[in-house]
Amino acid sequence: MLENALSDKGRSDDYKELTNELEKNLSALQQKIREKKLPVIILLEGWGASGKGTLIADVIKLLDPRFFKVYSTMPASEAERRYPMMKRYWEKIPEYGALSVLDRSWYQELAIAKMEEGISDEEYAERVDTVNTFERQLTDDGYLIIKFFLHISRKEQKKRFLKLKEDNATKWRVTELDKKRHKNYDAYYKQFDDMLEKTNTEYCPWKIIDTTDRRFTRFQVFNILVSQITNAINSERTYPEVPKDALKQFDLMPPVSLADIKLENKSLQPTKYDDELKKARKELARLHGKIYKHKIPVIMVFEGWDAAGKGGAIKRISYALDPRGYEAVPIAAPDKKELNHHYLWRFWNNLPKTGHITIFDRSWYGRVMVERIEGITPEERCAMAYREINEFEEELIREGAVILKFWLHIDKDEQLKRFNARKNDPLKQWKITDEDWRNREKWDKYESAVNEMIAKTSTKKAPWNIIEANDKLYARIKVMNTIIDVLSECIKRSGH
Q1: In terms of domains, do 225 and 262 share one?
Q2: Which CATH number covers residue 333?
Q3: Claim to verify: residue 223 and residue 267 sit in the same structural domain
Q4: pLDDT, tens digit, for every residue of 23-73?
Q5: Bridge-partner residues for 459, per DSSP?
Q6: pLDDT tens digits, 430-480
Q7: Is the pTM of this model over 0.70?
Q8: Average pLDDT over residues 193-214
């Protein structure tokens, strides 16, 4: 692809005059971006000394600084390496109606990592897939991503390096790494070209520009920015159809219907419960030490009917854990800031680092339950979520995480009994709301949605565990024993 970079073909255009007009247009477009609530990501990749910093400065000087952020991507720190690779990039996506400008980006995890970190061909291919998925998820949500790769020849790069080194004020900008990359220009060229080819998608294509002529480069960058932003603003919001075979790539478990779950005879006597709880806590505490030592991140997801006992189960788990190594995250309706981002953004921000546990009391599955049933989110976006959720979980597992998903299941009579008990207990009245009663009236709709959710997101690597919870004591022990079994097997597989 690099050989087809846009370049000055000796045209007689007055690039300065044309660019001046485009600059005015870009400045005016920022207000329309805010009105349209269009999130825009502008990223610049390219060779050392190809002009990324200068172009970024040219672009942002025209914009209101309250509504954009500039990020310069450096190699991941030790702290950042304890999280999934894409977490630090999800954190940088802009709010709806704002811009993020990236001086280098997630593409540093591809070609540069292949050349300098020695990642395998398999890992490189997985990272390419991760990046393409990330960009598709954002563009499906309405994000506009404009990708520039700034290209210069080996001869031009050498010329610019020499010029920088001649001046004491700029010579520091030519690093030993720059020299190494220049020396191996042909190898980097080949790797960059491969990266560009494999990430040049219909929904997020590359704009490759030969930056030998700076006036031509500025004109092209501004022309592309104005054109793409204008098109996005003037286009009606539509959602792409999810391919019918989109879920076939995931290793799904056989579907299970809640109606087939037998709740009777799933109980535990208090004395038996006390013995089992004591034993489970001891084993879970031991396993927590193991996963901390071997840096295995664990994600627990609790979903279930209102009053099914999620909070009680989470409490019993947390009693067994070292408080320095876990966090319980209650998921309520998204706040204003969260609503102004892709719905997965807040979950990426709450992932555990290696060796730690995050317990989600409700989760990203709200997208295909409450948001869908209550009409909070367009039906088309909810339909897209099954694939997005599977991709999200698959990526976390590929990064080494263990995911445990629990649906706490009770019948309608048991829920009513618990609702009334809460209503009549002054200490528990806060736990019952008008919304709980409204949700109960939609029991059949929710049951249908849960069945579909389980059928489409219960994979062999991240299956749903349906917990019979009419008896709270039985449910708590089953949850804890399931966690123990999964973590034990994970530690055993990893050779620890």
Answers
A1: no
A2: 3.40.50.300
A3: no
A4: 999 999 999 999 999 999 999 999 999 999 999 999 999 899 999 999 999
A5: 252
A6: 888 888 899 999 999 999 999 999 999 999 999 999 999 999 999 999 999
A7: yes
A8: 97
Three-state DSSP state, 18: helix
pLDDT band at 170 (very low <50, low <70, confident <90, very high): very high
**Cβ-contact 39, 96 below 8 angstroms:** yes
The per-residue pLDDT for 10 is 62
If asked whether residues 369 and 424 sit together in one domain, one would say yes
Distances (CA, A) of 206 to 157, 210, 214: 21, 13, 19
Rg (CA), the chain: 27
Q: Give the pLDDT confidence score for residue 12 in this predicted structure.
A: 55
| 310 in the same domain as 221 | no
Clarify whether residues 207 and 297 are in a common domain: no
With tokens 């954009």, the residue in question is 68
Q: Count CB atoms within 10 A of the CB of residue 493.
A: 8
CA distance 182 to 115: 13
Give 246-255 pLDDT, tens digit per residue.
Answer: 999 999 999 9
Cα–Cα distance for residue pair 287/201, rounded to 1 Å: 43
Establish if 146 belongs to a structural domain.
yes
Residue 224 near residue 372 (C-beta atoms within 8 A):
no
Nearest-10 crossing angle of helices 214-234, 15-36: 30
Domain shared by 229 and 263, yes or no = no
Burial (CB < 10 A; 0-12, 13-18, 19+), residue 281, is middle
Whether 279 and 229 share a structural domain:
no
Q: Which DSSP symbol is given to 431?
A: G
What is the residue range of 278's domain? 258-493
Give the whole-angstrom CA distance, residue 175 versus residue 177.
Answer: 5
Domain count along the chain: 2
DSSP 108: G
| Among candidate residues 265, 288, 269, 289, the one with its CA nearest the CA of residue 277 | 269
